[in-house]
Amino acid sequence: MDRWIGVLKIQLNPNSSTFYRVAASLCLSSSPKNLAVPSGNAIFFSGDRVEGTENPVIERLSDPQAIAEILVSKFGGSINAFVVEAPIFNGPFAVYKDFIPSVNENGEPKSYDATEFPASTSLVLLLSKFLAEAKNVILGKQKEPYETDSSSSFSCKPKTAFLGFSKGGIILNQLISEFAQPTKTQAQAQSNTNEFERIIPTSIDRLFKSLAEIHYVDVGLNTKGAYINDKDVIGRVSEKIASRDFGIRFVFHGTPRQWFDERRVWIRKEKDGLVGLLKAGARRDNMMGKLQFRERLYFPHQLADLQMHFEIIDFMDQKTNNILVLALHQNISRMGMFMSFMGKGLPTAQMLSLVMGTLHKQFIEKDIKSLQEFHIAILDIFSTVNSALPGKHYDVPSPKEVEACFQEWKEANESEKRKIFIDFMKRKVSLSRLDDSTLITGIVTPPAAMAAKRAGESLPQLKLIKMIPDVIFVPSATIMALVSVKLSRKMFLGNMAS
After folding, report:
1. How far apart are CA 275 and CA 197, in angstroms?
2. Which of 80, 146, 197, 497 could hold 202 in an S-S bridge, CB 3.0 to 4.6 Å?
3. Taking the mean position of all CA atoms in its chain, how far away is CA 448?
4. Percentage of residues in the chain with pLDDT exceeding 70?
5. What is d(CA 313, CA 324) in angstroms, rounded to the nearest whole number?
6. Do 386 and 275 meet the contact criterion of CB atoms below 8 Å apart?
7. What whole-number distance in Å separates Cα of residue 22 and Cα of residue 80?
8. How far is CA 228 from CA 199, 275, 279, 436, in A?
């Protein structure tokens, strides 16, 4: 699929003297060059300006057109990517006055007021005006008449993903506040936007109905308000998500520069607060897995600097990044589901030792020399465990507790360091215990089930077993084995009691 890539200045209101600088990478049909219907739209809101660093990484990742191309590489070649910069900069500070009327002169919000839907109204209008301008640019490069190409249309309406980077995260908070309100069905933003309704959401109602993903990308502020922590708002958001045909996924991407900044401790507290509210919403009986969330920490072993703050744009969602974290998410989540089914909560102390031993090898043994590096490693582990275990949230140890552990760990020999670390984590992560037979069954059954399936496939009487996918057969066999063990144990204990 061909693409049009460019940067345009868009005047949102005719009476305003300010312009939004918007970069985009848009899907085009092959011939003639018309706008094609995408599978989705990724909309990225930038933050404050950083100039004069003479750092090529920061300079490249400050370029909105480069970011648009990165978004296409992340979300797929069939999407449209938009990168929105603030229309006003007070020095380096981005000011999104149209989206959040309460912001001060430095662009910091005093509140997130959904009255009149300022952010969603502005966004719908901005996208429509941008496509109208882009159409004129495309028309100027071809002789054939322009029309929106629907030959490659997707069967479903395009989904929408919001991404807020740095201060751009305040736009996400405002949009979430507006999403929580009774949806304001709005007429088309302007008379000529009907031709774009298959490409972008052209009303507030369509914008929120298409919303599928919200990404906080190393969000932070110099004042409180980086993450919305309004319990009522998130409660209403959860209710609306539960009633939809498809869910919404929240992803929190962070670096030590924001999440572990000791001068701005509210950033991590607000992030943890929002994650906690989302976890509560995800536990609703009627949610059916529609509200999803994940935290990802990038560059956990590096000291905080400005480059990592921008470089996260390059690394976010990369499958090769934090491979242990991603694998641990999957393994603990699966174990958590099995143990929840068994009525015993989370994995055993033996399993905890295995997990913590792996984390110790991957995180702690990597040339940690200072308290700050040790603290970052501990916080990274808690971020991993909290985001991997559904319905659970473990409080991060206090700085004094971490410092005391570090002093003991630093003075210990190599053989003692592992034990000190695991004992410390066991004290901070309380897990329920399972009997050994259940644990052994859960570990042994999957490979045994796989071997049994392979053997059965060679027998004519069991040829239908080939029709069952491995991903269904193995978990099903494991659950049946675990249920059998638990029932057998209950019967045995019952006989002993009688």
Report:
1. 33
2. 197
3. 35
4. 66
5. 20
6. yes
7. 13
8. 30, 10, 14, 43
pTM of the predicted structure, to 2 decimals: 0.66
Main-chain dihedrals φ then ψ at residue 264, nearest 5 degrees:
-130, 65
Q: DSSP H helical segments within 286-393, as ranges? A: 306-315, 323-341, 349-359, 371-388
Spatial contact of 276 and 319, defined as CB atoms under 8 Å apart: no
Nearest to 177 by CA among 123, 236, 226, 218: 236
* Bond from prior residue into 38 cis (ω within 30 degrees of 0): no
User: What gap in Å lies between CA 454 and CA 421, rounded to an integer?
Assistant: 41
CA 413 and chain centroid, separation: 39
Burial of 12 (0-12, 13-18, 19+ CB in 10 A): middle
pLDDT of residue 383: 63
Instruction: Count Cβ atoms within 10 A of the Cβ of residue 195 and give its class: 0-12 exposed, 13-18 middle, 19 or more buried.
Output: middle
Rounded to an integer, the average pLDDT of 64-91 is 95
User: Is residue 129 over pLDDT 70?
Assistant: yes
Could you report the per-residue pLDDT of 240-255, keeping only the tens digit for each?
A: 999 998 999 999 999 9
pLDDT digits (tens, 9 = 90+) for 8-55: 999 998 888 899 999 999 999 876 678 999 999 999 999 999 988 999
pLDDT the model gives residue 147: 54
- AA letter at 242: A
Question: How many Cβ atoms are within 10 Å of 286's Cβ, its own excluded?
Answer: 9
Q: Which of 479, 482, 475 is nearest to 441 (CA)?
A: 482
Q: How far apart, in Å, do the first and last CA atoms of the chain sit?
A: 73
Instruction: Say how far apart CA 384 and CA 29 lie, in whole Å.
Output: 42
* Rg of the chain, C-alpha, whole Å: 26
The model's pLDDT over 88-119, given as tens digits with 9 standing for 90+, comes to 999 999 999 999 999 999 999 999 999 999 99
- Chain mean pLDDT for the chain: 79
CB atoms within 10 A of CB 45: 27
3-state secondary structure of 292: strand
What order of strands is seen across the sheet that includes strand 159-165?
Answer: 2-10, 20-28, 79-84, 40-45, 159-165, 211-217, 248-254, 291-297
- Least-confidence region, from 28-42, 288-302, 307-321, 328-342: 328-342
Which two structure tokens, joined as six digits, stand for 222? 């110099």
Residue type, 72: V
Beta carbons within 8 Å of 239's beta carbon, 6+ residues apart: none
